Structures are given as C-alpha cells and as structure tokens.
Amino acid sequence: MNSVTQSLSLTGEAGVIEAVLDKSSEGSIHGTAVIAHPHPLYGGTLQNKVVQTLARAFVQCGWQAVRFNFRGVGASSGVYDEGRGEARDMLSVIQQLAPDGPLALAGFSFGAFVTSHVVQALAPARSPEKLVLVGTAASRFGVAPIATDLHENTLVLHGEQDDTVPLSSVMDWARPQSLPVTVIPGVEHFFHGQLPLLKALVARHLRA
Question: What's the CA gap between 158 and 173, in Å, rounded?
C-alpha cells in the first residue's frame, strides 16, 4: 500500500507545533489518529521508530495518522512542561486536524502518559474510537485511568523485558481498573527487532 507524508506547521499555546500527516494515497479515510512521541528530554521525536510504526499501522487500516513534536522538540516552539503543556499541545493538534469525525489516539512511553490525560480532557464530550498505549510510562508519571467504557477499544502493549518502564508498574496502574495489558515476551522498551510484531498487533486491534 502506498502512503504519502505531508509536513505541517500548526499553532499551539507556545507557538509553532511541527507535525506530519501520513495517509494512504488510495481509498477513503476512516478518521484521524493522533500519535504522541516519547520523552522530549531523552531524544523523543515524531521520527521515533515506534511512533512511525504506529502511524504505519493506522494508515494500513484506513486512518490518516498525525505525528507531531511536543514543545521544544524539532521545529516546535516552547520548552518542556512535564506533560501539562504537552497535553495541551496534543489537544491543539486534535482541534486543528480532527475537530470532528472518528478519532483515534496513541502514545509511546511519555507519549502514552500524555495521551491518557488527553483522553480525560476530551471526556465526556468526545471519546476516541480507538486508543493505543505502548510502553506506558507508569513508573515515572501519573498516568490517568482509562474510563471503563473505553476498555474494549483500548490496547495497552508492554514488553516483558522493558528496563525503562518495568512491567510491574504498568500492571500496578492497570490492576485497579481491571484494564487488560498485552505483554510481549522477551521484548524491551523500544521493541528492537520486533517492530513488525508491534505493527501487526496494533493493526489487529484496529480491525477488531
């Protein structure tokens, strides 16, 4: 399947938000997926391999995918804000590129933490049709709980051997919510060598 990538310059409260839009060059588009990258202070950008893999899975399943740089990353204005301003950045992207229609949200690591708070901020007016959280940074940040009525549409993926975010911390976050976690045996935080498996698992969730 052929896809096209378009560079975008959006507006956020800190100024410019650098973004790219990935979509299929053929067929109709089901909706818009907005994907959040890992920690800005540790090399996280919209070009992260896991973030790109998530975008490819969404495009393969008929969505257009938006990847964007948080404030202070790449060409995005501003400075790191511990997740608060980053959540508002993501909300700005949604407002500008997906103000209505089917919406999906996804995040990796720090981006999963930010995405959880964006879901909370959108409720109850709007719920994502699909939610994907990968390597959720539950050991380092206060990840928001996922509303029970969203569980069926939510995929939480974590590597068994994640040494950046221990699996136990994600289980501690998920357990009180009875939120299922899909654990991938032998995989670490950045899914080295396992990106095709990650893509396949996300695509399966999106088609379900």
Answer: 13
CATH 4.10.910.10 fits 3-207, yes or no: no
Decide: 145 and 154 in contact? Cβ < 8 Å.
no
pLDDT in tens, 111-133: 999 999 999 999 999 999 999 99
Phi-psi region of 178 (alpha: psi -120 to 50; beta: other; left: phi over 0): left
Report the alpha-carbon distance of residue 191 to residue 85 in Å, rounded.
28
- What are the pLDDT digits (tens) for 45-77? 999 999 999 999 999 999 999 999 999 999 999
Q: Helices 49-60 and 195-207 sit at what angle, rounded to 10 degrees? A: 40
**DSSP symbol at 83:** T
**DSSP character string of 89-145:** HHHHHHHHH-SSS-EEEEEETHHHHHHHHHHHHHTTT---SEEEEES--TTTS-PPP
The pTM (predicted TM-score) of the whole model is 0.97
